[in-house]
Amino acid sequence: MKKTVGALSGLALAVAAICTAGAWYTGQQLPAVLDQSIAQSNQQLAQSIAGAGGSAQIELLSLERHLYSSTARYHLKVENLQLGEERVSFELTFVDRIEHGPLPWSRLKAFKLMPVMASSNYALEKDAGTAGWFAASNDVAPLQGHMSLGYDRSVDGQLRLMPLDITQAEGSSVKLSGVTLDISGGAKGETVKLAGDLGSLAMTLVTPDRPPVKIALQGLELAANLKLTPFGFYVGQVDLLLADSAFTYGDRQAELAFKGMEQRNDYQIEGSQLAVKQVYKVADISYDGKPVGSAQVAWSARRLDVPAVQALMEFYANNLPAFEQATAAGVSPSQALTEAQRADFQQRILAVLAGKPQLALDDVSFKTANGESRFKLTVDLAQPASLDLPLEQVSRQMIEQVQSDLSLSKPMIGDLAALQAKVQGEDVQQIEQASRAGEMVAQMAMYTQLATIKDDAIVSNLHYANGQVNLNGKNMTVEQFAALLMSNFGALQGPR
Asked: Which InterPro entries does the UniProt record give (predicted)?
């Protein structure tokens, strides 16, 4: 028995010695690791906001080292970042309690027994700028998380946005159930995996001169599996799912609701060419409690020459202030460029077109109870001899091929017209008349010679190549096609 106790005691002392030695080693290595991580983060921040102007920088304010743990403070400063139509600037400070490896106590409590170099537990620091945010989260750090750093420099952790409840004097409010984002990545950020979840978000926006707007979201999920390319950006799969969303607005406070929303993004690279595909789906749409239908939009871009596109984006980012000043002065942004800059800009556009990119609407579809409509469009581009040629010549040389296919369901048109009549409170006879709107649209389409009728669908097929247009089986020149469009446009305008 004494031998057993002695052996166990010796084992415990050995483990304690190893942990102490590991903690000391981690403490010695920590400053260099933090400097490397911050430099890498700043590089990725600069790349991610390159097209939005402004700047973002992370700075290590202090580091207090001890045997088993250290405390670090970081400062994030974002200046003049373009978000929509606004410029945004803010500063945040984080406090990070770093437990040294190989067996940090927080991981042992969670039964995570794999040795790591360090375990980071960070939280937003309360200051004058974030006091309101802390008040909304019941004085709990609203942004916090943990991250483990492996001995191979891989990372694994979770970022949390805590529940928030904000109510303003005029009646506007925000209530968030909380957000979690699981993050894992390779040593140099060469791979990144994300898995996020938002339970619910409810917002009410009140303004003095307009009816309130209410937004409700439930079941938002994010999943991403990405890898870093030699060009400094990530490719892979990014999926965003939203179970339910509702928007209430207007004098009648009618509700527009969506169920089963999906956004699936796929980015792939082969050699120096990028291919992008995005698919948006809505399983069910309703308005004011009345069913509308379902929808899907899928688009893609292929053969995008990465160095050429990056060079074009770099030009735009470098000249963004001049473009904004020109727009504010009410002149064309191109007038803000010198002759040399315009020539440089044209060369960068020609370099993108040299890769013969293809842009496509692979599927735009809408389905109601009685019909479904679809539209497809593919455009193949090429490099013209010069952008200084007359516009007609540039267009002919740049647009190599166009293919479009439209199938417009007459019953679907009737369903939407009848729904509009119901929403407007029309009587039964008017609703019945509206349901026959598809037939009227079909007659107009036949009159224009731009479409044909096949069963219950209005169909139009167009193909363009080598200066020739084939419209619904009829060949014509570009000039003849343009004349057909202009004659129909004039007829729609009517006599003056």
From this structure: DUF945
- Band the pLDDT of 355: cuts 50, 70, 90: very high
According to DSSP, the β-strands at 86-100 and 69-83 are antiparallel
Stated pTM of the model: 0.83
For residues 183 and 158, is the Cβ–Cβ distance under 8 A?
Answer: yes
d(CA 450, CA 461): 9
CB of 136 within 8 A of CB of 98? no
Radius of gyration from C-alpha coordinates of the chain = 30
> What stretch of H or E contains 234?
strand 234-249
Given a cut of 50, whether residue 8 has pLDDT beyond it is no
What mean pLDDT is reported for the chain?
Answer: 84
If 0-12 CB within 10 Å is exposed, 13-18 middle and 19+ buried, where does residue 222 land?
middle
> Which stretch of DSSP H or E encloses residue 382?
none
- DSSP bridge pairs for 76: 58, 92
375 with 404: CB under 8 angstroms? yes
Residue in the structure block whose two tokens are 């102007």: 53
CB 372 within 8 A of CB 363: no
Give 269's pLDDT tier (boundaries 50, 70, 90): very high
Buried b (16+ CB within 10 A) or exposed e, 424-451: eeeeeeebeebbebbeebbeebeebebb
CA-nearest of 359, 212, 237 to 299 is 359
Amino acid identity for residue 350 in this structure: L
From residue 292, how far is each of 20, 298, 405, 422, 471 by CA, in Å?
A: 66, 20, 24, 12, 32
Q: How confident is the model at residue 467 (pLDDT cuts 50, 70, 90)?
A: confident
Contact 161, 140 (CB under 8 A): no
pLDDT at site 203 = 94
More confidently predicted of 303 and 455: 303
How many residues make up the chain in this entry?
Answer: 496
Q: Are 140 and 126 in contact (CB under 8 A)?
A: no
Output the DSSP codes for 192-209: EEEEEEEEEEEEEEEETT
| In the chain, where the domains are located | 1-162, 164-221+235-256, 271-496
Strands 399-409 and 143-149: unpaired
State the CB neighbour count (10 A cutoff) for residue 412. 21
Cβ atoms of 160 and 137 closer than 8 Å: no
* CA 59 centroid distance within chain: 27
C-alpha to C-alpha distance for 403 and 30, rounded to whole angstroms: 59
120 phi, psi to nearest 5 deg? -100, 135
DSSP 137: T
Contact 265, 237 (CB under 8 A): yes
| Sign (positive or negative) of CA dihedral 63, 64, 70, 76 | negative
